Amino acid sequence: IYEDMGRIKDALEHYKKALELDPEYDEAWNNKGSAHYRDGDFLTALECFEKSLKLYSERKETWTNFGAVLTSLERYEEALEAYREALKRAPGDKFAWNMLGLLLIKLARYEDAIESFDCALNIDKNYIDAMINKGLALSSLGKNKEALAILMKVSELSPSDKRIWEYMGELLRKMGRYTEAARCFEKSWKK
């Protein structure tokens, strides 16, 4: 609860107490790692996720968190493996598919990223983050019309999301459609 409220230090104190009572409590190690990750302490987060996985290697959330921290540490090959482990345990986890896709974008593996986003969208066809990220990957491949179609659909599903208007504005600017781009940027400022 404290972590969700943005009270990271309080959350860490509670995880510390829980681990003093039971140092083998794998979920507390995962949660402690998540709090350190949110606080920007990636090395400590990594240690916590490693401890959690040593205690119980079947928790897909820990594998996904492990992948995220490895990505932040630019240990991309290890991050790929962590996401694969998460998806082995929970192939229906749209968040893990999306995170894998984001990593693949970082690696300029846009086609593979699109496949990951499609997997997430097969689980939830209106998963906004995966839709946006698929649009960004398509744009990186120069498939701007396809990207724009996806982003326009997102703007209908989530018109108050500033990100979509900014991304659409950038894409329209890239396509030379400056008047439409300006309107999108104006919408992003007003939201």
Walkthrough of the structure:
The chain is built from eleven helices and no strands. It is 77% helix and 0% strand. The mean pLDDT is 95. The relative contact order is 0.06. The chain is an all-alpha fold and 191 residues long. The protein has a domain at 1-90: Alpha Horseshoe (Serine Threonine Protein Phosphatase 5, Tetratricopeptide repeat), CATH 1.25.40.
Indicate the topology.
Elements: H1 8-21, H2 26-38, H3 42-55, H4 60-72, H5 76-89, H6 94-106, H7 110-123, H8 128-140, H9 144-157, H10 162-174, H11 178-190
What is the fold named in CATH at topology level of the domain at 1-90?
A: Serine Threonine Protein Phosphatase 5, Tetratricopeptide repeat
Order of helices and strands: HHHHHHHHHHH
Mean pLDDT: 95
Q: What is the CATH architecture assignment of the domain at 1-90?
A: Alpha Horseshoe
- What spatial form do the alpha-carbon principal axes imply? elongated
Q: Quick one: CATH class of the domain at 1-90?
A: Mainly Alpha
The CATH homologous superfamily of the domain at 1-90? Tetratricopeptide repeat domain
Low-confidence stretches: none
Outline the biggest β-sheet.
none
Q: Report the total helices.
A: 11
